[in-house]
Structure formats: C-alpha cells, structure tokens
Automatic annotation (TrEMBL):
GO cellular component, one term: plasma membrane
Compartment annotation: Cell membrane
Pathway: Cell wall biogenesis; lipoteichoic acid biosynthesis
Lineage: Bacteria, Bacillati, Bacillota, Bacilli, Bacillales
Keyword Cell membrane included in the entry's annotation: yes
This protein's name: Phosphoglycerol transferase MdoB
Binding site for substrate: H402
Top-level taxon of origin: Bacteria
C-alpha cells in the first residue's frame, strides 16, 4: 500500500500525477465556463497535457521535476486566466489579451471582486509541492526519484495517440465562429495553442472598393433628400458626456419608491431619449467607446482599438469639428497612458487633452479624482473655451461608477434596501446614483456659466456594468425583480442615448435602433456637417429610422449582431445560432441569414479601411 501513497505517485510517475492534476483543474474551469465537465473533457484536455509531459520525459535528463512544475504552473495560469476573464467579459481569454496586462494593476479592485474563493483551488497543488521542495530532505528524495525513465516505446505511443486526439479536436472545429463554442469543441488548452499558431494576417479589401455607397447598401440605408433637423444646431458647442458603465435599465428606475438617477431621468423626459440603443465596445471598454463615437468605425477583431490603431490618422469627429472652426478637447481624470489614450488622442486629432496631471488626486476614488472634481474643473475650463471666438467640442469621460462599484461611504447619496446591501447589483445601483448626483452638479454649473443654452449635449453609456457572467444567485434575483423577467444578453449591452439642445430638441422617446457607431453621423446632421468625404459605418438615427444593423464583437461571439427585431448570437456559424427578441419585440424572424452575412461584411470593410489608413506624423 505504501507504494500507492501520493508522494510515491508524484515521485515515481510524475507524468501520471501531473496529468491528473491538470485534468482536475480543467474540470474546475469547465464547471465555471461551460456549466460543467462531461466525459469528452477527458479527451479534450488530457491529450494536450500528455504531449507536453511526454516531451519532458523524452528530452529532460536533469531537472525533470523543475520542467514538470514549470509546465504545470503555465497551464494553471492559463486556466486561471480563463476563469477570471470569463467572469467579466464572458469570452475565452487568448494571448492577445496579454497586451493589456499592464492595465491590471490599475483595476486590481475589479480583478479581485470577480474571484470566487474556490478558484484558488487550482493553485493548491503548487503550494503543496512547493512545501515539499522547501523541505530539503523530502525535496532531494523527490527530485532523485522522479528521474526514473519511462519506456521510450510507451512515450512514443502515448505521444502519438495524444497528438492524434488533439488534431481530432482542433481541425474539424476551426471554422466555428463562436469563440466559446470553439473552445468547448477543441478543449481550452488546445484552443489556446490554436489561437497562437493559427494567427495570420486578415485578408484586406482594397481601399478603392470601400465606398460609402457600398456601406449604405449593406446597411440598407436610404438617405432622405431633406434630412430632419439638418443644421438645426449650427454654431452651437458640442458636449459629449460618456457615462461609465451606465446601462439603460437605470432610466426611470425606482427601487422601493426611491428614484435612482433623477438627473438622467429629467434629461430623458425633457429631451430626445433613444431607448433602443446598444454598445459596440470590446476589450478596450471605455477607450473603445471613445474610439467608436469619434470615428464611426467598429472595434478591431483582436485587442483594444487604442492598441491596434494607435498610429493611424483617423478621420474623426474632432477633425471634422476643426474643419468647421471648432476648438476640441477631451477630459478624463486618469493618467493619459492608461489604455494608451495619449496615442488615441493623437490619432483622433484632438487639439488637447486633460488628464490626471490637470485634475490632480483631490477626492480620489479608485484610481483618479472623483466625478465631482472632473465636472467642476471641466466646467471652469469650458467657460474659458466658451469665451473665445470659436465654438468648442468637448468630450467628458466620467469614471467614479467604475467596476467593482464599491465607492467609499463618503460618496453615498442614498440608502439601499436591506436585500440590496452587500450585493454586486446593490453596489452598482449606489455607484450610479452617485454618478447621477455628480452629473446634476455639472448640469447646474453649465447653466450658471451660460454654456448649457448654447450647446448640444449628448449623453450615453460607454459599456455594460453588470455582465451576466458575473452575477451570483442573489444578483440574478435582484435583476429579475428590476426587469420583471430574466436578465439576458440583450439587456446587458443595452445603454441609453440622450440628446438635448435647448430650443431644438423636445421631450420624445425615440424607439428606432441605434448604436455608438451612429453618434457621429447623427451629431453631424444636427450641426450641418457633410460626411460625403468621410467614410463612416454608422447612420443618422434622427432620419434613418426604419432599419439598422449593429455587428457585435468580443462581449458577444463573432458573427453576432443586433437588428431592429433581434439580438442574434452566432454558434459554430449561422445555422446553430440563437435568436433573441429585443425588449418589447413579440417575436423574431428565423430567416436572418442575409443580415448575418451583411454584418460580417461590414466588419471586414471597417477592419480593412482602418488598417490601411496612413499613420499620423
């Protein structure tokens, strides 16, 4: 019996022991990501580990145990990253996301808030083995015993079978569009290897073939000869306020009779309020929203726009405004290096930016000055800009209602019902209540300074705040209470858009479909700026109201889109995809193959166009 003891298994047959360890960790990861392991998990995850361990047995003559421990640590790190990333983004992390590792320390609170204690079970074996290695006598015995050779014939057979199984899992599933489906079909470790070795440059469309007429045809846009509200806001300032993590359900929400966002509600009820509006962001979250709104292009297929397109001279809203005599600036309380914003602002052509150096660390929340400081100092600066002989365009990026939404008690502006206390949803609601309070101060300040009445003000949510993947049972029950039904994927990406301009807009709820990509052409129409010479993928949603098509990436699988009737989630392709009616829709058409094809073509054209733009100098 002593020969069967765990320490004998580890020391005499490390290939078996470490394979078992990796398999158990894979089971844990599958439980979180795919809802639980099944018998195929064994055939999808174990062969990859065996290939690695066979190579160690074959080539390692000394320090074999070190190689085993290193390989185990690497695979553990991959599986742990998959767990954590899925909990927020709902996607399978790949090596491309390593480009954002330098952002992690700035949002460490967000990272730790996603962690369930049992995730740390993936590291227990490393701790135990580390303990044995530290104890010199046991460590020396273990190292010596593990040098025992495995039969070359056995290794060759095991390696060959494992390689065939890996290829059998990978090759037939390469065409799957849905990244989660693909990872489940291939196995997580196989999928991670596949993304590295299959990386190839995207085939680009010739720029001469990318015309506005082609884009409008794909979107089925028929532009009116006399657009509604064309040039109605000529010469007015433009203030675009990007609300951190602000989802649409907050508008007019009351919890036990308590209004959560009274200032946003007042604006929505006095202005143009688009209640069928959706995000288009990806890995870059807030910075992606800045990119989309200022360019009317889609996010890149891999990585944040600020990391993929930072050197491009982007046709943009700031450049368009400058051509018409406007001053332009953007305001954000964090450091400009966060998400590579300094490069983004050069690419977009802003005249200048204001970041942490300007706002300081006064009244700091999370990693920058609070929204109250943001709005107070911004209002003073806008007054200076307003006194010049130029109108201005200012984009203001709020921050305090940032994930994980655990604002300090000094910022509490409301009490929560007991059932909301110490919940993710409760923290979110309270943070957004504070963000709304600070916004109200900003609006009052702009009015007192005489800026409000001479401005077009656009407000929208930058991205979701409550991913369905991050909610526990209590949170799901609270969201069901709020919605009166199950909280779903369409709700998650549903954000508000409000456009207000004194003397121009009026109280109206506009139900036409829109997305962040549509803000630039809509604003251009109000200001009377032609886009005939500027490629754009959005549409003026004040005039093109009957049809729209919003391709989605990252938070939803590739091939997903929002149309006027539905949210479509791709499967391996179109045929096994899921059709979800939008809020308020009674049914969906199951014949949306044409929209699926057009959405993919739009993404391809956007990727091709932006990738081939010249670099800024």
């Amino acid at each position: 019996m002593s020969n069967l003891a765990p320490k004998r298994l580890f020391s005499k047959r490390p290939i078996l022991a470490f394979s078992l360890i990796v398999l158990l960790k894979s089971f844990l990861t599958w439980m979180v990501v795919f809802g639980g392991p099944n018998w195929t998990t064994l055939l999808k995850e174990l062969p990859f580990a065996l290939i690695v361990f066979c190579l160690i047995e074959w080539f390692a003559t000394k320090r074999k145990l070190v190689y085993y421990l290193s390989a185990n640590l690497l695979m553990t790190a991959i599986l742990f990253a998959v767990l954590m990333y899925y909990k927020y983004y709902g996607v399978i992390v790949t090596y491309v996301a390593l480009n954002q590792v330098n952002q992690v320390t700035a949002v460490s609170n967000s990272v730790f808030s996603l962690m369930d204690p049992y995730y740390l079970l993936v590291f227990i074996d490393i701790i135990v083995m580390g303990y044995y290695l530290i104890r010199r006598q046991k460590g020396q015995y273990w190292k010596a015993a593990s040098q025992k050779k495995v039969s070359r014939r056995v290794l060759a057979t095991l390696f060959g079978i494992s390689l065939v199984l890996c290829l059998f899992n990978i090759v037939p599933n390469r065409a799957s569009m849905n990244e989660i489906v693909k990872a489940e079909q291939m196995g997580i470790l196989n999928y991670e290897a596949y993304t590295i070795f299959s990386n190839k440059d995207q085939e680009l469309v010739n720029p001469s073939e990318i015309t506005q007429a082609t884009i409008d045809e794909l979107k089925q846009i028929n532009k009116p000869a006399a657009p509604k509200l064309w040039n109605a806001a000529s010469g007015k300032n433009l203030i675009i306020i990007q609300m951190e993590s602000f989802q649409n359900f907050l508008i007019n929400l009351k919890i036990d009779g308590q209004e959560i966002t009274p200032n946003m509600n007042k604006l929505a009820n006095e202005s143009y309020y688009f209640n069928n509006f959706y995000q288009g962001v990806g890995q870059g979250n807030t910075s992606d929203a800045e990119f989309i709104v200022n360019t009317s292009y889609y996010i890149p297929p891999n990585g944040a726009a600020t990391q993929v397109y930072p050197k491009k001279e982007l046709p943009s809203l700031p450049r368009l405004m400058q051509e018409h005599g406007y001053d332009t600036a953007t305001f954000h309380t964090n450091i400009v290096d966060f998400w590579n914003r300094g490069e983004l602002y050069k690419a977009l052509g802003f005249n200048r930016y204001y970041d942490k150096k300007f706002f300081g660390e006064e009244d700091s929340v999370f990693f920058a000055a609070s929204d109250e400081v943001l709005y107070a100092k911004t209002a003073a600066e806008l007054e200076k800009m307003d006194q010049s002989d130029k109108p201005f365009y200012a984009q203001v990026i709020s921050m305090t209602a940032h994930h994980p939404f655990t604002i300090p008690e000094r910022k509490y502006k409301m009490g929560l019902p007991e059932r909301y206390e110490d919940t993710f949803v409760g923290d979110y609601v309270r943070a957004q209540n504070y963000a709304d309070y600070a916004l109200g101060l900003f609006i009052d300040d702009l009015k007192q300074r005489g800026i409000w009445d001479n401005s077009v003000v656009v407000l929208y949510g930058d991205h979701l705040g409550l991913p369905i993947y991050s909610l526990d049972r209590d949170d799901k029950e609270l969201m069901q209470e709020i919605y009166g039904r199950e909280y779903g994927s369409a709700d998650m990406i549903h954000i508000p858009l409000i456009i207000t301009a004194p003397g121009i807009t009026q109280p109206e709820v506009l139900t036409q479909l829109g997305g962040q990509v549509d803000i630039l052409p809509t604003v251009a129409n109000l200001l009377g700026f032609s886009l005939n010479k500027q490629i754009h993928f959005g549409q003026d949603i004040l005039n093109n109201t009957t049809v729209n098509l919003l391709p989605q990436r990252y938070y939803l699988p590739t091939g997903s889109f929002v149309s006027s009737e539905e949210l479509f989630l791709s499967g391996s392709g179109y045929e096994d995809g899921t059709h979800l009616p939008l809020p308020g829709a009674s049914a969906v058409s199951l014949d949306s193959q044409d929209q699926f094809n057009r959405a993919l073509e739009l993404l391809k054209l956007s990727d091709s166009y932006v990738s081939q733009l010249p670099n800024w100098k």
